[in-house]
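QA checklist item 7 of 12: single-chain prediction sanity check.
[x] sequence parsed
[x] length recorded as 148
[x] structure emitted
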Amino acid sequence: MIFTHFILRAALVTTVALAPHALVASASGTGPKQIRSLADLPAERSGISNIETGRVDLPEDFGGGGRRTLRMRKVTIAPGGVLPMHSHQDRPSVSYVLSGTLTEFLAGDDLPHSFTAGQSNSSFRRDHALVNNGAEPVVFLEVDIPTN
């Protein structure tokens, strides 16, 4: 009984002693760099792919002067992927997350907003960036008015 108690105690001490090293190893592991604030955002686009799934011409009197289209895309952001800060000043968009966790940074707001499967977000008249800080791809549908 005393021997068993000694072994269990030694295992507990070893686990507690090694725990900080395990946390450092996982934090600096091979996964993508976590983007936690606007200051961490890279300027280059990476890990983004999309497939246009539909497009329709909008009537000329829809607004914005001239012919515009409404499109739908299936967008995938790979783990660690970034769609850098960009504008939706005169072209609204709405997204619906199918899988993964989409992280959005809004201009002037250092706190990220996260969206998971089944949630949607919209962008209009405010710059934003999209990031995948997760281990699995983020897949979402986006409907927007593209620049011509």
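[x] summary fact logged: The chain has one helix and eight strands.
[ ] second reviewer sign-off
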